[in-house]
C-alpha cells in the first residue's frame, strides 16, 4: 500500500506541472487516463506473480438415468395366429310357400326361437283338400274296376282249361286286369301328389333357429315365386365364422389340425372382449391369388348368443403351445441398425448393455423372444431414449414412472 500512495503522489505532482500548459478540458481527460492506468498498475502489483486467474472446477459425475424395468419371463406360450372374420350361420333359409293360396294365419312372433317342425304359417287348404278327395274317389273307382276284372279272369281260366272258353277271351281279360292295375297305380300317385300339395299349406320350420322380420301379413295371396318370402329363418346355435389368414400359415394350421391342437377364440371388433371359443372346421381348398390369403371356417357353440350373423370379429387361432419360451414386455424391444435389441441391466453395477434378440409373435403386450435371452435377465421397458451401452441407470417404481423420459416426448421437443 505505501507503494501505491507513492505512485498516486507522483501522478498528482505531474498534473500540477501540466496545469499551466493544458486547458481545463484536456486536464480532466489526462487525469482520468492516469487514474485508470494507476489502478491497473496497482492491481497488477497487488496480484501475486504467477497466481492463476481462477480455481479449477471439479468434474461433475453424471447421475443415473431413471428407467422402468421388468423381468424376462419363461414358461408355456401359445402360438396364436390372428385374422379378421365374419360371423356366418351354419343354416339360413328364406321361408316361402310352395303353393299358391291365401295366407290364413302367421303362427310365429318376429324374433322368436323355433324348433324344427314348429308351425310357422298356414295357407287356405280347401282347394287342396278337394283335390285330395278327387284323387281318393278316382282310386276307389279304379280299384273296384280292377277287382271286377280279376274276378272275371279267375272265372275264365278254369273254363279255358276245359275248352269251354276261347284263348282270345282269356287274353282279353288278362289285359284288362293289367290295365286296371296300372290305372290304380296311377291313381295312387295322383293321390300322393294331392296330399303333398295339401301338406304345403302348413309351413313348418326346417331347422332350429330364430325368425326375422315378417315380410307379409295374413290375408295376402302368396306365390312360390315371391322374392321376399314369408320370413328369414337363421340358425344361431351353433354358428360359424369365416376368416382369412396368409397362405404362408397353411402348413402350420394343417399340422395343428392333424395334432388336434387347433382351437379358435372370437373377439369383438376392438379385439378386447372375448365373445366365444370353438374349433376349426376346415381350410378352404383354394387360395385367393389376388391377396395371397386363404379362407378358414370355424364353429362356435354360441351359447350366450354373443356372435350375431354378419358381424365382424377378430379370430385368434391357436396352432401350438411352446414350452419354456421367453417373453418380455412389448416396450422393451427396440429397433436398431442391425435389427431388434433390448437393454439388459447388470444387477451388480446397475449399468446397461445392448443385447441383440430375435423377436417372434407379439400379443397382449408381450413379445416372444426366439433367440438372445435366457429368461433370467432384467430388461429396460421405458427410458431407452437416453441410454447407451455402459450407462448407469436407476430403476423407478411403477408409482413414479411418470419421471422416466421416453422417445415419444423427446421427439415432440419436450425433453432437453
Comma- or semicolon-separated keywords:
416 residues, six-stranded antiparallel barrel, single chain, Elongation Factor Tu (Ef-tu), domain 3, conserved putative lor/sdh protein from methanococcus maripaludis s2 fold, disordered C terminus, alpha+beta, 4 domains, 22 strands, four-stranded antiparallel sheet
Describe this structure in words.
This protein has 416 residues and is of the alpha+beta class. The longest helix has 36 residues, at 126-161. A six-stranded antiparallel β-barrel has the order 2-11-14-13-12-15. It has six helices and 22 strands. The chain folds into four domains: 2-46; 66-73 and 326-411, Beta Barrel (conserved putative lor/sdh protein from methanococcus maripaludis s2 fold), CATH 2.40.420; 79-90 and 235-323, Beta Barrel (Elongation Factor Tu (Ef-tu), domain 3); 99-233, RNA polymerase II/Efflux pump adaptor protein, barrel-sandwich hybrid domain (OB fold (Dihydrolipoamide Acetyltransferase, E2P)), CATH 2.40.50.100. Helices cover 30% and strands 34% of the residues. Helix 1 (2-18) packs antiparallel against helix 2.
CATH topology of the largest domain: OB fold (Dihydrolipoamide Acetyltransferase, E2P)
The number of strands is 22
Please describe the biggest sheet, giving its number of strands, its sense, and whether it closes into a barrel: 6 strands, antiparallel, barrel
Helix content class? 25-40%
Biggest sheet strand order reads 2-11-14-13-12-15
Which structural category fits the helices and strands?
A: alpha+beta
Q: Average the pLDDT over all residues and give the rounded result.
A: 84
Share of β-strand residues: 25-35%
Shape: elongated
Note poorly predicted spans: 20-56, 409-416
Task: Write down the secondary-structure element order.
Answer: HHEEEEEEHHEEEEEHEEEEEEEEEEEH
Number of domains: 4
| Second CATH tier, the architecture of the largest domain | Beta Barrel
Query: N-to-C terminal Cα separation, in Å?
Result: 52 Å
Can you tell me the CATH class of the largest domain? Mainly Beta
Amino acid at each position: 500500500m505505501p507503494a501505491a500512495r507513492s505512485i498516486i503522489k507522483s501522478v498528482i505532482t505531474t498534473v500540477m506541472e501540466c496545469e499551466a500548459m493544458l486547458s481545463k478540458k484536456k486536464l480532466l481527460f489526462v487525469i482520468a487516463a492516469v487514474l485508470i492506468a494507476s489502478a491497473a498498475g496497482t492491481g497488477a502489483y497487488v496480484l501475486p506473480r504467477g497466481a492463476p486467474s481462477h480455481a479449477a472446477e471439479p468434474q461433475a459425475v453424471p447421475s443415473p438415468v431413471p428407467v422402468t424395468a421388468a423381468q424376462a419371463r419363461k414358461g408355456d406360450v401359445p402360438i396364436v395366429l390372428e385374422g379378421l372374420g365374419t360371423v356366418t350361420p351354419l343354416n339360413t333359409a328364406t321361408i316361402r310357400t310352395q303353393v299358391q293360396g291365401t295366407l290364413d294365419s302367421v303362427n310365429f312372433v318376429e324374433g322368436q326361437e323355433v324348433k324344427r317342425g314348429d308351425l310357422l304359417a298356414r295357407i287356405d287348404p280347401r282347394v287342396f283338400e278337394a283335390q285330395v278327395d278327387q284323387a281318393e274317389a278316382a282310386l276307389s273307382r279304379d280299384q273296384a274296376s280292377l277287382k271286377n276284372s280279376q274276378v272275371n279272369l279267375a272265372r275264365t281260366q278254369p273254363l279255358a282249361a276245359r275248352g269251354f272258353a276261347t284263348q282270345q277271351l282269356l287274353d282279353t281279360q288278362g289285359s284288362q286286369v293289367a290295365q286296371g292295375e296300372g290305372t290304380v297305380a296311377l291313381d295312387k300317385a295322383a293321390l300322393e301328389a294331392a296330399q303333398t300339395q295339401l301338406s304345403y299349406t302348413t309351413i313348418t320350420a326346417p331347422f332350429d333357429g330364430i325368425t326375422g322380420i315378417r315380410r307379409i301379413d295374413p290375408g295376402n295371396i302368396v306365390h312360390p315365386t315371391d322374392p321376399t318370402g314369408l320370413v328369414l329363418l337363421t340358425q344361431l346355435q351353433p354358428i360359424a365364422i369365416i376368416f382369412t389368414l396368409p397362405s404362408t400359415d397353411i402348413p402350420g394350421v394343417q399340422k395343428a389340425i392333424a395334432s388336434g391342437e387347433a382351437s379358435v377364440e372370437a373377439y369383438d371388433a376392438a379385439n378386447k372382449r372375448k365373445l366365444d371359443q370353438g374349433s376349426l372346421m376346415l381350410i378352404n381348398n383354394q387360395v385367393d391369388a389376388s391377396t395371397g390369403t386363404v379362407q378358414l371356417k370355424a364353429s362356435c357353440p354360441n351359447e350366450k348368443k354373443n356372435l350375431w350373423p354378419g358381424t365382424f370379429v377378430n379370430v385368434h387361432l391357436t396352432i401350438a403351445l411352446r414350452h419354456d419360451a421367453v417373453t418380455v414386455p412389448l416396450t422393451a424391444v427396440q429397433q436398431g441398425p442391425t435389427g431388434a435389441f433390448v437393454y439388459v441391466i447388470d444387477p451388480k453395477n446397475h449399468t446397461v448393455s445392448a443385447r441383440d434378440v430375435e423377436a417372434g409373435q407379439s400379443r397382449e403386450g408381450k413379445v416372444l423372444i426366439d433367440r438372445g435371452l435366457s429368461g433370467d435377465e432384467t430388461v429396460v421397458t421405458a427410458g431407452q431414449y437416453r441410454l447407451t451401452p455402459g450407462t448407469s441407470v436407476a430403476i423407478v417404481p411403477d408409482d413414479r414412472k411418470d419421471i422416466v423420459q421416453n422417445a415419444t416426448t423427446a421427439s415432440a421437443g419436450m425433453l432437453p
